Amino acid sequence: MKTVAMMVLLGAAVSGRGVRAQGPDSTVIRLADADLRTALQLFGRFLPKPVITANIPAVKVSLETVRPVSGEAAAHLLRGLAEAHGLVMTEDSAYFQILP
Question: Does pTM surpass 0.85?
Fold first, then answer.
């Protein structure tokens, strides 16, 4: 699954898993058994600011959107994914930061 996670980070769809563009402003996200650090960074592709992370636990996560999501919805999903693993997401004028 590491290969899939790396391909997802690059925005490629692999065997129906990963990220699929659905339009200019929306994307379907499908992560299966992906590294949490990779998953958090993936969301940076859909947000107007970079995602900075530190001390992220080495755990696997799965997340699938049932329909295309906008950048705003991706930010909410990012916060939920972080909080589900005991992390805190803050937003600065130039970036999102995720820390324990």
Answer: no
